[in-house]
Amino acid sequence: MTSYVKIPSHLRPSDPQGPDLLTQERESASFDVKELTLLLYGIKDLERYHKILNIIENDPVFDKTNIYFMGRDKLFEYTIKKEKRLVQLIKENKWNVEELQYAEWFLDMPGPFGAHRGMFIPTLIGHGTEEQKKKFLIPAKNYQIIGCYAQTELGHGSNVQGLETTSTYIPETDEFEIHSPFLTSSKWWIGGLGRTATHAIVMAQLKSNGKDYGPHPFIVQIRDLETHLPLPGITIGDIGPKFGFNATDNGFMLFEHVRIPRFNMLSKYCQIEKATGKYISPPNDKINYGIMVLIRSLIVTGVRVTLARAATIAIRYSAIRRQFIDKDEPKKLKDGRIVETSVLDYTMQQYRLFPIIAQSYACFFTSKAMNNLYTKYMEQSSDGNYSLLADIHASSSGLKSLTTTMAVESIEDCRRACGGHGYSSFSGFVKFYQDYLPNTTWEGDNYVLTQQTARYLMKTFRKVTKNPKKYASQIGTNPTITYILQYLNEPNQKCMATTPLNFNNQEFQLKAFRHRIAYLLANAVDQIDNQKKSWNSMLVEINRISHAHCQYLLVQNFITALQYNSQQQINDESLNILHNSTSLKKVMTSLCNLFVLHTMEKDVGEFLESEYLTSSQARLLRTQVYNLLKEIRPNAVSLVDAFLIPDALLSSALGRYDGKVYETMIDWASKEPLNGIILNIDPNNNNTILEKAKL
Amino acid sequence: MTSYVKIPSHLRPSDPQGPDLLTQERESASFDVKELTLLLYGIKDLERYHKILNIIENDPVFDKTNIYFMGRDKLFEYTIKKEKRLVQLIKENKWNVEELQYAEWFLDMPGPFGAHRGMFIPTLIGHGTEEQKKKFLIPAKNYQIIGCYAQTELGHGSNVQGLETTSTYIPETDEFEIHSPFLTSSKWWIGGLGRTATHAIVMAQLKSNGKDYGPHPFIVQIRDLETHLPLPGITIGDIGPKFGFNATDNGFMLFEHVRIPRFNMLSKYCQIEKATGKYISPPNDKINYGIMVLIRSLIVTGVRVTLARAATIAIRYSAIRRQFIDKDEPKKLKDGRIVETSVLDYTMQQYRLFPIIAQSYACFFTSKAMNNLYTKYMEQSSDGNYSLLADIHASSSGLKSLTTTMAVESIEDCRRACGGHGYSSFSGFVKFYQDYLPNTTWEGDNYVLTQQTARYLMKTFRKVTKNPKKYASQIGTNPTITYILQYLNEPNQKCMATTPLNFNNQEFQLKAFRHRIAYLLANAVDQIDNQKKSWNSMLVEINRISHAHCQYLLVQNFITALQYNSQQQINDESLNILHNSTSLKKVMTSLCNLFVLHTMEKDVGEFLESEYLTSSQARLLRTQVYNLLKEIRPNAVSLVDAFLIPDALLSSALGRYDGKVYETMIDWASKEPLNGIILNIDPNNNNTILEKAKL
Predict the structure, then answer these.
(1) CATH of domain A289-641
(2) Is A443 a catalytic residue?
(3) Which of B168, B336, B450, B499 has the largest CB neighbor count within 10 A?
(4) A42: annotated binding-site residue?
(5) Closest CA to B110 of B79, B89, B87
(6) Range B365-373 average pLDDT
């Protein structure tokens, strides 16, 4: 890449040097970083990781050095090239799903083919008949057609039942007529639709014989395969620039009485009978929920690596960045010179950053637990047993809401913890944050979702309260029933801690979170059932309930992982590694304590209000949080190293593994294309550019 | 502007229509919107507002319709054009400072000339001798030279004392030698430096006769006035793309033994004597603080309009956007059809948005109070009386930190409250948020600043505790002394509220905030003085203290404004309007209560921990917050209308005054330039673009 500014080559940063500082940090670790990495990935995935990274890093098409300088037009063209190259690699290397996932992670490129792979193909697989798969799935897998998933409309998002696009059965011709009656019926936000897709799965209100059957999916060819122009009656466009995701062509689409064959209604579960137009309804409505649960559990897994990526940049840079001399404890170089204190040594910086490392590990154990539960559910449901569904649907909804909001806030906290340089695109935070943001809205708006969680929890609370004995056997296995019964038995439970260290007691910790969620729940049910408050008037409390429940799940899953002991048979690679290493177990215990106590402290009002904690205990709790920050300090850099986020993904001058922060900042700046022009600044001369300069 | 997609012209949004909904909302107001607008602006400023808006709106150079589609290169060129046009208008219309401020606000264009007007010229005025002004200020005001302010370096921001650039006096030639000894010494983030400025005020470590005198300002010509190329020994470049501010050329700069005449050290207050190199020190160091206080008070004023702008978009769109049918209270059209409920009717949405309206009004009264205090200080200081300085410096630092963090969070809360469409650039939130963000870092990092505030408060606490009687006379005039003395007299004060409505009592409210800050302060002083905790270990508490103090100031200023009565002589246009209108006073009282109680509720842990509130009172408090939301609901749209944020500034499809949300969204989308290309998506064909299409 062209440098437009010649930087004097003899200059280097003032001492101490970044690489030396990171080396020192790495030497102070109390555990084996490679071992922790193995705990996180497992042997097989680690091999996969390196194999794929090697290919991606060495392919010139995927070179990211230019990306921060591109406007939307260039970025989009570049992304199409990357998408095409990725397809070639998938075919050449015969990548499986897991391998492709690694490739997509490293590429970090939400692009126009994303919905094709992530939504169009899975929906065909899940809802298509064998004939439909023959017709659409095979060309889709070969990228002869590109699909998108058109559900959201200009006027409707979360309320799918309210969609306006119609699909009316016309018995005379055995067709459906897809139509957009209003401007607000326009499909909107549809990834890959704007410029790319040839086909769409369109969610439309099914109408037949004058009756409405609600939203159903239809396959519609939307563009000519030769000219790539929209087919007659279909208006399509890209919806314009966004906060992030600008390499994706989110699109809009209007239909004017467009006919498709009856064959194109996705008919694995329900269909319209030929000629009669009779609606044949699905065997049960639990199928869709299974997929939703899976997608949400993947989002939680995504949170873990998102937090890891943000923390990696902020922690490494904070170890290198120095600011002010701490007069109580001045830092010296080996030659005795006093230098400014590393910002990572300031309590405030630790308080801002270390809990984010802990959050990432908390999400690791919870996403494992979610996956295990999902697998169990899938086994049971194939035998027609759906008893787990309500619980895992409620918890996965709430966890999606809680953890994605946490991730967005934590990326931004990490960015701001990098001071001014966090605002530069070269920090690696800007595009990263912008592209991650939609996670709080899609797959269920984070506020709307909490209503689903709380509704289930309240139902359970009423059920258990009515007949506690019936549920006593589920104590210890069902977390919701456990905390409700404990609360009913002992509604005035108090925390017994008398020293900061007492707060490390895992039983104290679990009780605190159980008491708090049950208290909130009991109160809300009382207000609705006895004080006759409307659901709408309770929405703020409802949100609190969902968060408290899901924080409890995160806490419980982290603690449970640590509570195995080596006598037990463990069929889990990660837990085996954890429990065979004293040093790993020790550092994970510190992180678990920090996660639990920091979470508690942030919402201390609820623990005080539920009268589990007293005022003076709240102060002890806070002291213990600060003690844990000190405990974690020597391991901070190694803890983020263990996440193994490659430089190729970080794309960050601040977070790179080798610590060459300042050299990279100025090198990348010299490549800014604006540096290739010379301005005319005279206000009386309307010509703004004197000339394009070249070095 | 070109439309690339033809939208069927017969389509309109489904009922109810946006304009009708806003009309209904406006009809339900309990007060006169024009009267409230007058309260906010005053007669003179309102005239100025309309005069300037009329010019800006009708100048084709300032047309913003294209702006969301521009990459950095085009945006920068366009901004230079706007800057030049603005200079022409300033000269043609002879705008004064206030008029220019309105123009800059409406233009909403942080650009390359910003630092010239905002930093370079004011520093010349404040620190230049008469001869220096003659030489530099006159051409600067004529835009014959363009200046920037080069303080921050690649390795140093907040710690100005640690800057590395040196300026060494050379008696032999009567010059200074400006030099960058390290890569980290490079000036960095300097607005207008990258491509534009011809001159810079460079902050450099002054050295003379082998002694160091700390950072001082020097004027350096950095580019040739003809060729606009950097002068010999100076390396300059733009630092590259950022989260926002991409129309500004923030730059970097390295010096290699660059000589400037002794004359160029800004010498109003201190200088180097010719030949001897003797340092003549400034009369006192309080001058700089005065300017810093002023800049920070302007930032708080900026917060008010920032919050107003964000709330305007979110409230108007929430009145139009409908989602789900509230089963407890379904909404009907005039013709009886049940329609989905406006999201503004959901408690959660009100809880997210109404406090932001209240925050804006809180900032209005506090920025007025800060300005009054600043004026008083300037009067006193011209007589050599600096007694107010420590207090207003501490409070303005903390208020800058608290309110800008609040503004950033509130813009983002408003954006997310707009659901998916908040993510579109057309929401008007994206560029707005991105450009506002640096406010949390510049003019003092928001975390570092709170240390200054807390340090002063602790000092005061110690002073007052030692000798309470000495300070008794200042109860009621000095807020800090007032709450400290009240706490010392009654450290176990309790809240007397027994009903939700009791929380509207302004004396209860003030006591709550006084007790809480004094409690935090007493605790922190105890930990430092008696338990010998280090400053570093207390940084989290220090941040809390500053926030609690500044929240108290916001609360107190709001309540004080409402507590005037018509018997009193009021020399204040706004307060006169407020106290002559029962309806205005009523709605402002609701907003004040909401501001106070919502702030209290968000940090309820601290009020519980200080044992001012009991657990059951915390529940009453929350109930009262919900009651206030209901009270404010009918006035919501009119309250944001009163802010009078023009459509030209909002640049928002969602927030426009006429409510044509969906029509505008699709119209703007049709203009996305990507819609002018046709793709080749075949993975086996490396040509990505089939053709550039035109409608």
Answers:
(1) 1.20.140.10
(2) yes
(3) B450
(4) no
(5) B79
(6) 92
